[in-house]
Known about the structure:
The complex is a heterotrimer of chains A (about 290), B (about 325) and C (about 160). Chain B is an alpha/beta fold and about 325 residues long.
Amino acid sequence: MEMMKLSLGPLLYYWSREDTLAFYGEAAGWPVDIIYLGETVCSRRHLIRVQDWLDLAATLADTGKEVVLSSQTLIESESDLKMLRKLVGQGRFKVEANEFGAVRLCAEAKLPFVAGPTLNVYNPETLAMLSESGAVRWVPPVEMPRDMIAAMPVPENVETEVFAYGRLPLAFSARCFTARHYNLQKDDCQFKCLEHPDGLTLRTREAQDFLTLNGIQTQSGKVHSLAHRYADLDGSKVDVLRLSPQLRHMGRVVEVFRQLADGALNAKDAPGRLDRLIPGQPYDGY
Amino acid sequence: MLPEPLLELICPAGSLPALKAAVDHGADGVYLGLKDNTNARNFSGLNFDEKSLAEGIRYAQAKGRKVLMALNTYPQPATLSRWHAAVDKATELGVDAVILADPGLMAYANRTHPDLRLHLSVQGSATSYEAVNFYRERFGIRRAVLPRVLSLPQVENVIRNTEAEIELFGFGGLCVMVEGRCLLSSYACGDSPNTFGACSPGHAVRWQQTDKGMETRLNGILIDRYADNEKAGYPTLCKGRFEVQGDTYYALEEPTSLNTLEMLPEMHRLGVAAIKIEGRQRSPAYVAQVTQVWRAAIDAVKKSAATFAVQPAWHAQLDKISEGSMHTLGAYYRPWK
Amino acid sequence: MRLPNFPQPLARVLRRLPALPASASLVALLNLVAWKSLKDLDWAPLRGRRFCVHLRDTGLRAYFSVSRHGFVTEVNEQADVTFTATTEDFARLALRVDDPDTLFFNRRLLIEGNTDLGLRVKNMLDAVELETVMQHLPAALSRVVANVRLKAQQREIAGAH
């Protein structure tokens, strides 16, 4: 079996410029093989601009990381498309296509791309079509159960990457729920997301933590962790584990997964190691 | 060649009586699905089998109306043949178009039935002309149904930059999330629209009258609790009341319905090909009433867009049957976002 | 908004059955007026399931299941799913004047217990054409029902204006 690769998924939250740059400064030294960069959630988040992401990409690539630029998931306006074209037009790095407009542009530019989790690839015909269009890796929808991923015929030159750690991105909307919480309109949101670097917790009326609001994105309340089921990955066709950024302790989370992948840590000991690093309840649902 | 007639009225049918109600009250087309997870309204007892489908097609086409069949869920490896068989059946029975979301299924349709007209479902989540044109170039889709996330100027930008016809939702239940990109139901109960074909499926929903009010639960998770005088919404997570930082409110969306009657002149001007009415899960009584109002409104706007005015009676009739008995313009009106 | 007078033939049927328990009366009535038009539905998935119709205004609860030959009273008064509404609202549903979702939003219809079962029944009944029901009603009753329905619909339209 080939060595399991680790990736650092795109940053889903909105952090200050200093925090973001410091995070990636540290990430350069973490034992991850692939780093996804870019704003996938909201076009109003502007502290790191496309050009900043491109500069960061070059810096991280120089440290030997594979860098992929992630595209925005919900494209609404012409300026969203302009950013997308800039992302695809750079020509050096792969792009993670998170909607089919990005697929079209990548295919046109003959740029190899990663088929992101929101492309809804549930069957071999769709995956084969994407592979022919230039996809070199696919990320199954986060709801796709292990058995279904295992049953999927994957083209030879396509890698499989699964969402392995972090709050699950579950839904996208035109509406910003963080702004709504503050009775603000999206166009005048005062960038409230900055105050919630790990999202806003939504509880049921019975005080059960249920979901996490992150701007226009809704995430799971619990933190998904495949480390808690790592033994199940043995013999699976998964090539890459995606770890989704959190503000604190991310380097130590990466370390736990690295040791698991290298066989240096027994799977049953992983939950104990992650206990104090997880910002919430662990979840191993799908 | 004459241009396609604009502003077609496309109405929902979850049963043969609903289909007939739509046709009899002036729908230009009806959309429907089979009794399984090949479409996104997979509720027990709803939808069509081969016999009722054949009769429905006969009934509609005899009156010059169209039948569009929704096959808008995502086929999965083990059951791919079910979706293929459904495309074959749709072609054999002579539907006017199939509404698809999955590119793999479009490839199958192109390969097997090159003359079958394809529409891109709202579940395909195409919100830009780049995405719509992807499906158009690869699979020759003739029409795309846009998710309920764009403002009207954004819709206009899509229309100006694609040859595909554009269909918009005009009325009915409002998904606050981008269609095809919502796994809330899946997270709560294991079944999502993408694969199972329903959000909040009946088997996971429980309604219970308690001392504190009527409770709605999805797989045990409390979605909302209604006092006796409060109107109820569908048991979907996006319409529930939750607590965020000490405030309990409709954190995602109130139980409301989309109603865009007042935007009809603008939709007409933009060249919107069709208006879709949501509600295949609703009864024939609903279909009859909504179709009646929208037929009158579309006829009025086509006759004279400049003098078009929404009749108060139209709103009254629609509000009565709406979720939450309130209506919204949704994302078409930018401040909603 | 009230329906016009309760159809006399229905009332007569009800009066004929005063000695029987509530469930049995309602089940007998259902068999008389509805079974013929419903018997061809796919009842197989509902075999053995127990239903309760709860009339909110009268407090009457009818428990029954569905057999090959018609509706059968459930003597031990237990149900997998319970429908609660007023007599008039049930009548409005049966006449297709209102749709169930509208009544549900307005808290006039409650489905408790096995929701999937409840929705299945609702959807199955929706798929029955009203003409079929009318054809199978006793002739006198059929005329009354058509008349009641027409009047109720006219009131709806008048009410909306």
